Design the sequence.
């Protein structure tokens, strides 16, 4: 078998409250025991670009799994239909997210190729959820890519339950990598500074990078917001961060 | 950003989705990332019938200015309806 052989496929895992949920698993087929990455998809859903990102971690030598956070609302539906159905029903509750990510982390840790280390990474709404998971679960690393409403108060009339969670910083269980666009307003540079201050006060290990000439969703290759230079540097930071924190 | 901002309301009528016509019962309106339109954010409208599953959906993603013009066109059209035609879809 080639040293870069990998496999990617849909699986079923146990999530919050023991629910069976769909997930996309990507794994290297050769090599030493390795760390795992739980990929938290953004609000538009469990879609092809997110599965592509999941495969990218396996290509780099990590176990990776992306739970379908909308499994319950719309099993078998197309990603955008599922996202719309979940939005109409109020979105993903924080407690359920933590349970599903916890189930995904347990799945990775039980994998025969696991070295026991697990990280989360999330983009956009997933960035906030990655931080939430890292403050609620025992993880080894977490990456927050431009997650809005970690700090700050949502404007009036937000029917979806999105509470600020900066007060959880004291419970962060692992090092945190934050990647932000300096032109983003959600989160704004001021809000990123506020999160940084909260982490310093809580004496937590973190590393933040803010990219000039980049706004929200700069990693998204299928959106006008894509910024190749910021994305290339961001990916390099991720590999270095995981290299330090997911080693066996 | 993912805006999270969503308005939901019950509606009556029919919509044509990927699998043909169906009775619509609800609408969601939100300004957020599009799936297809080449923009960072669009005004998105879903006409749905949750009892028929997530696939029972008529979805549009509109430029905000276009959405505003559409809203005005809807109101103007309703305003021009003769009084004798202003009936609801529910039989008396």
Sequence:
């Amino acid at each position: 078998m080639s040293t870069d052989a990998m496999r990617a496929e849909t699986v079923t895992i146990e999530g919050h409250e023991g629910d069976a949920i769909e997930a996309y698993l990507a794994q290297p087929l050769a090599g030493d025991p390795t760390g795992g990455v739980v990929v938290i998809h953004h609000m538009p859903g469990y879609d092809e670009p997110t599965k592509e990102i999941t495969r990218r971690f396996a290509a780099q030598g990590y176990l990776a799994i992306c739970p379908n956070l909308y499994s319950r609302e719309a099993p078998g539906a197309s990603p955008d239909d599922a996202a719309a159905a979940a939005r109409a029903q109020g979105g993903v509750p924080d407690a359920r997210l933590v349970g599903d990510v916890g189930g995904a982390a347990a799945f990775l840790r039980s994998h025969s190729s696991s070295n026991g280390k697990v990280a989360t990474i999330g983009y956009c709404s997933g960035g906030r959820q990655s931080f939430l998971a890292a403050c609620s679960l025992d993880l080894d690393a977490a990456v927050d890519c431009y997650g809005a409403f970690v700090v700050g108060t949502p404007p009036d009339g937000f029917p979806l339950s999105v509470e600020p969670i900066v007060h959880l910083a004291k419970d962060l269980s692992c090092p945190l990598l934050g990647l932000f666009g300096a032109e983003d307003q959600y989160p704004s540079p001021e809000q990123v500074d506020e999160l940084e201050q909260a982490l310093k006060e809580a004496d937590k290990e973190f590393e933040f990078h803010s990219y000039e000439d980049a706004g929200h969703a700069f990693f998204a290759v299928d959106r006008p917001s894509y910024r190749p230079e910021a994305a290339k540097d961001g990916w390099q930071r991720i590999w270095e961060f995981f290299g330090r924190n997911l080693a066996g | 950003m993912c805006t999270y901002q969503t308005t939901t309301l019950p509606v009556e009528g029919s919509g044509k989705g990927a699998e043909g016509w169906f009775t619509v019962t609800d609408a969601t309106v939100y300004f957020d990332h599009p799936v297809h339109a080449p923009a960072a954010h669009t005004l998105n409208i879903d006409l749905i019938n949750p009892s028929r599953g997530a696939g029972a959906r008529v979805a549009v993603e509109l430029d905000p200015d276009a959405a505003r013009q559409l809203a005005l066109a809807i109101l103007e059209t309703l305003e021009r309806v003769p009084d004798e035609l202003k009936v609801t879809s529910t039989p008396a």
